[in-house]
């Protein structure tokens, strides 16, 4: 089934540990995104990539890094996790970053930093 | 700053009609999206408006007024499965989506 897959689905992580959230899409979409979703707040963009080989910072990039070595994969790394990074993380992709571009979301990763 | 406002929660009755409003202030405008998100699941696309007016898609319709910075999502013939959060998002001048916090819609029998 075509779509976008995230792993893991949930994780409890000790503060200070390094963690990579994986995201893979098989729709050959150019653009990919990482969002975090916290109760009472809208989805907030962490990092994005408009095409393979390029990345950009979103609204809340501090403490996170990404890479886009190929079209399909867009991992998100927390270098040294802190409790404020406890959140639900969604990876998304779209055919292009332009107008009228529906975004497809992965099922999310629920991360708890303790 | 950029801002998207929508009600936090609404309640409606099965079979009825409900209108979820969204007002926005953003740097530039390249379209407005509505997404549906069931609890514990990913958001899924419902509609896109870039021109003023009403777009109808089955039981769901979305309206846009760019001059007023206003949109609404209209859901008709409500079903229990429509219980979900509805997210309004605006694409700004940099083609980035700015998201509202979402409206939790509760459907009662």
| Residues in helix, % of chain A | under 10%
Oligomer: heterodimer
How many distinct beta strands of chain B? 11
| Rg for CA atoms of chain A | 13 Å
Order of helices and strands of chain A: EEEEEEEEEEE
**Helical region count of chain A?**
0
Query: What gyration radius of chain B follows from the Cα positions, in whole Å?
Result: 13 Å
Largest sheet of chain A: 7 strands, mixed
> What's the main sheet of chain B like?
6 strands, mixed
User: Span from first to last CA of chain A?
Assistant: 35 Å
Number of strands of chain A: 11
Helix-strand pattern of chain B: EEEEEEEEEEE
Largest interface (C-beta under 8 Å): A-B, 21 and 23 residues
Give me the secondary-structure category of chain B.
mainly beta
- Given helix and strand content, the structural type of chain A is mainly beta
Number of helices of chain B: 0
Mean pLDDT of chain B: 95
Q: What share of residues of chain B is helical?
A: under 10%
Taking the alpha carbons of the first and last residues of chain B, their distance comes to 40 Å
Low-confidence stretches of chain B: none
Sheet-strand content of chain B, in percent, reads: over 45%
Can you tell me about this structure?
The complex is a heterodimer of chains A (114) and B (109). Chain A has 114 residues and is mainly beta. Chain A is built from no helices and eleven strands. The mean pLDDT of chain A is 94. Chain B is mainly β. Helix content of chain B is 0%, strand content 57%. In chain B, strands 2, 4, 5, 9, 10 and 11 form a six-stranded mixed beta sheet that branches. Chain B is globular, with a radius of gyration of 13 Å. The termini of chain B are far apart.
Note the topology:
The complex is a heterodimer of chains A (114) and B (109).
Chain A: E1 4-7, E2 10-13, E3 19-25, E4 31-37, E5 44-49, E6 56-57, E7 64-66, E8 76-78, E9 87-94, E10 104-105, E11 109-113
Parallel strand pairs in A: 2-11
Antiparallel strand pairs in A: 1-3, 3-8, 4-5, 4-9, 5-6, 7-8, 9-10, 9-11
Chain B: E1 3-5, E2 9-13, E3 18-25, E4 32-37, E5 44-49, E6 53-57, E7 60-65, E8 70-75, E9 84-91, E10 97-99, E11 103-108
